[in-house]
UniProtKB/TrEMBL annotation:
This is Cytochrome P450. The lineage of its organism: Eukaryota, Fungi, Dikarya, Basidiomycota, Agaricomycotina. SUPFAM superfamilies: Cytochrome P450. Heme binds at C461. Its cofactor is heme.
Length: 521
């Protein structure tokens, strides 16, 4: 009878209006959330991990900071408050420890979290989005030889020509106006990657010089931010949000399709060329990324890489190799505009190494310039283009602890270069740009152990050799030929305050500088 009485309190739903259904389902959802929250708060296996109490049942604050593009700073703040191991969500822990970095990203072979699926290309995997180590290793072998330093060096003539084209454009501008060098450098990198990856002289930098914005360069810039947002939102919500009828927003949401259209044509052209000219398979002197992928054969089956994989891999490399290097370069140029002492020290070295201002030295010469090397390391320390937390999953059944804090299996863990590069006990005055800290005799093993601008371990950035090559050539060429000038009213600490969507960018979304031709060349 008691149960009948209780059931009588619930309104009959046979003929209930829709509002009754919504009210009942809403109430049930709230009760379920409260019950799960209480259970997680009291019984979670991560209950002993330091952190805000509410992270035991919600990631809302983390999500809010992600939407504000301030995730790195948020996690840094938690480290400052709670120490080197901190819970940032119901099943997520961030840590700051170089020994644990070696385990998680190295010897432990922890797999990636599902977050990386947000940066798939048209819902297709590439090396970065392949979660398991074994699958990634197979994919990475298909392009490893392309990024060998000796192989990339063979593209120097074309790279030098492209950089000299940039110099001519800046000569014409004559330092008369401030220019946003973020799209400028991105266009430069897209052009160079077009040559080395696809064998295509796209002419992107020429279009920028004519006052235009190439849609391919725009898509390269949009994609990482789009991926971060897509990875944060539930798939249904992303479907709704991506349907908002705004032309610029739609361009942003379909960035991957723009890239597929461009690269897809190059894949078909290169594939057809290699079939018509099979002798190219014997030419191991120099190859584009596309031909490297198309000619690769898996050792266990002797099969070719599927064309869809060639497409997605090539697009991923174009994105990763363009906007990131351009952003770091822009920040370095901003520092040079503020610090005549640094520019002076740099020029004392490069003016001797590059006596002819329009004859770029071989990369072997640039690699042996101590102050240039120190400058680039400091730029990568403070302005690493991908400083975000690199998520991994603790293997089930595997013991793992950070600073004696046990982390159970299936927990998402990660460290971030942002925090590793700002430890004051390792890098005194961590927010100050100090190239001299990396000079021979000053650089320490501890500094190198905490230096991870390209990630760490077997899943680090495959294109880091290309990034280093381009930074050396571009910084040298710009400093040798131009005075870099910034107006505080346009470009300052506030406008250049760093934001992150996995990759980093300035708060103002621009970096306005002027490049004045040197008078004493």
């Amino acid at each position: 009878m008691k149960s009948d009485h209780l059931l009588g309190l619930i309104p009959s739903l046979d003929n209930a209006p829709l509002s009754e259904w919504i009210r009942l389902l809403g109430g049930f959802s709230i009760l379920l959330f409260v019950a799960k929250s209480i259970h997680s708060l009291l019984f979670s296996p991560l209950g002993h991990v330091p952190g805000p109490w509410y992270t035991s049942f919600t990631s809302l604050e983390l999500a809010i900071h992600c939407l504000r593009f301030q995730k790195c700073e948020y996690i840094q703040g938690l480290f400052n408050k709670y120490g080197p191991v901190v819970r940032i969500g119901p099943n997520k822990v961030a840590f700051l420890d170089s020994d644990s970095v070696k385990i998680v990203y190295g010897t432990g072979r922890f797999n990636k979290s599902s977050w990386y699926k947000g940066v798939q290309i048209c819902d297709q995997d590439h090396a970065m989005t392949t979660l398991d180590h074994a699958g990634h290793a197979i994919r990475r072998k298909t392009f490893t030889q392309f990024y060998a330093p000796a192989h990339l060096a063979k593209y120097q003539p074309e790279i030098h020509d492209a950089v000299l084209e940039l110099m001519k454009i800046l000569d014409i501008l004559d330092g008369s106006v401030s220019i946003d060098c973020l799209p400028l450098f991105r266009h430069m990198m897209v052009d160079i990657n077009g040559i080395t990856m696809f064998g295509s002289h796209i002419g992107v930098i020429h279009e920028w010089g004519s006052g235009g914005e190439h849609p391919l360069s725009t898509a390269v810039s949009d994609f990482p931010k789009r991926g971060a947002l897509k990875g944060l939102l539930p798939s249904l919500l992303w479907s709704l949000v991506s349907s908002i009828p705004n032309s610029r927003w739609q361009q942003f949401c379909v960035a991957d399709r723009v890239l597929v259209d461009f690269v897809g044509k190059r894949v078909k052209e290169t594939s057809r060329f290699l079939k018509e000219h099979p002798e190219q398979e014997k030419d191991a002197g120099r190859s584009t990324l596309l031909s490297t992928l198309l000619l690769y054969r898996y050792s266990n089956t002797d099969e070719a890489v599927p064309e869809q994989d060639v497409l997605t891999e090539s697009i991923a490399h174009l994105i990763a190799g363009s906007d990131t290097t351009a952003t770091t370069l822009a920040y370095i140029c901003w520092e040079l505009s503020k610090r005549p002492d640094i520019m002076r020290s740099l020029r004392e070295e490069i003016d001797l190494a590059m006596p002819d201002a329009r004859s770029i030295p071989d990369i072997q010469v640039l690699q042996n310039l101590p102050y240039l090397n120190a400058l680039l390391k400091e730029g990568l320390r403070l302005y690493s283009a991908a400083p975000a937390m690199l998520e991994r999953v603790v293997p089930i059944g595997k013991d793992f602890a950070v600073h004696n804090v046990a982390i159970p299996g299936d927990t998402i863990v990660g460290s971030q270069a942002w925090s590793s590069h700002r430890r004051p006990e390792i890098f005194p005055q961590p927010e100050k740009f100090m190239p001299e800290r990396w000079l021979p005799g000053a650089e320490t093993e501890e500094m190198l152990a905490h230096f991870m601008p390209y990630g760490y371990g077997s899943r680090n950035c495959a294109g880091q050799n290309m990034s280093q090559l381009m930074l050396r050539i571009l910084v040298t060429s710009l400093a040798r030929n131009f005075d870099v000038v910034s107006k505080v009213s346009e470009t300052n600490d506030k406008t250049m305050s760093m934001r992150d969507s996995f990759v980093m960018f300035p708060a103002a979304l621009e970096c306005k500088l002027s490049f004045v031709p040197r008078s004493n060349l």
